[in-house]
Amino acid sequence: MVNSSKQTPGPDTSKSTQHDGGKAGAAAGTGGGQIVLAATPIGNMGDATNRLIALLETADVIAAEDTRRLHRLVSALKITTTGKIISYHEHNEATRTADLLEMVRGGATLLMVTDAGMPAVSDPGFRLVEAAAKEGLTVTAAPGPSAVLTALALSGLPTDRFCFEGFLPRKAGERSARLAELAGEQRTMVFFEAPHRLEPMLRALDAAFGGDRRAAVARELTKLHEQVLRAPLRELLEWAEAAEIRGEIAVVVAGAGEAAPELPEDHVAAVNGLVAQGARLKDAVATVAEDARISKRELYSAVLAARA
Questions:
Q1: Rounded CA gap, 33 and 30, in Å?
Q2: In the chain, how long is the greatest CA-to-CA distance?
Q3: Which residues pair with 117 in a beta bridge?
Q4: Contact at 8 Å (CB) between 25 and 55?
Q5: Between the CA of residue 94 and those of 128, 160, 205, 264, what are the distances in Å?
Q6: Cβ-contact 88, 128 below 8 angstroms
Q7: Cα R_g (the chain), whole angstroms
Q8: Whole-angstrom distance, CA of residue 191 vs CA of residue 209
């Protein structure tokens, strides 16, 4: 049965009234320019940190994935920006990275924000950080909301070891190949997916991992209609087939269970097969034991016990 939890985290327009001292407080304490990757709310505006607010108000340059969303964020927080606003997204990263680095070299504090969450994590920003790091320019972060960690924490699945896989390939063949690589992954896996592609994604997960694999679908995280459904993949697929799905989606899938340790008895047939082809019993046992990485003595005993 699908286990669904809904929450009402509160108004999406609450505003913090304490700042952290403007640019001096927001800066990393270094001379010259710097790049600050700042996490923005993934839904509830009340999750905007004091440091994010101060950076928005005081940064010399703000590189935004979508300038329209930036303006909506600033309006919701009831603050005013003073720096230059530049669009920076996947389609112009290659051409604008050099210009942004030049501003940082000149002493500017460059604030990098995306539509939601932390820049450079399945969002623009990696190319900028990579180039800045090669030059030895200062790069720091103002941590905050994360859809990856929020979905993981709410999933009810193991959190001690996990991996983030982002968006799966859209083409069915490429998606199946990627999931085949992950079939034996023992860590909890976190994926992103668009609502209109959730059903085919869950169908592919069902085929690759089996319908009994535990998983969770988290949608509209931190928003008024937040929903987390926890169930085996097959049940989540049946829900997706019948539901009208909207909002941002994160899918969390349990890792594969540890393989049962191999026993000498499991390799008796292989030994007998080599013997049937003319190998001496001792040599056949040695060959199979080495390949299986098990004890020759225990395998030899298992062969004799099977013949008794």
A1: 8
A2: 87
A3: 40
A4: no
A5: 9, 36, 34, 57
A6: yes
A7: 26
A8: 14
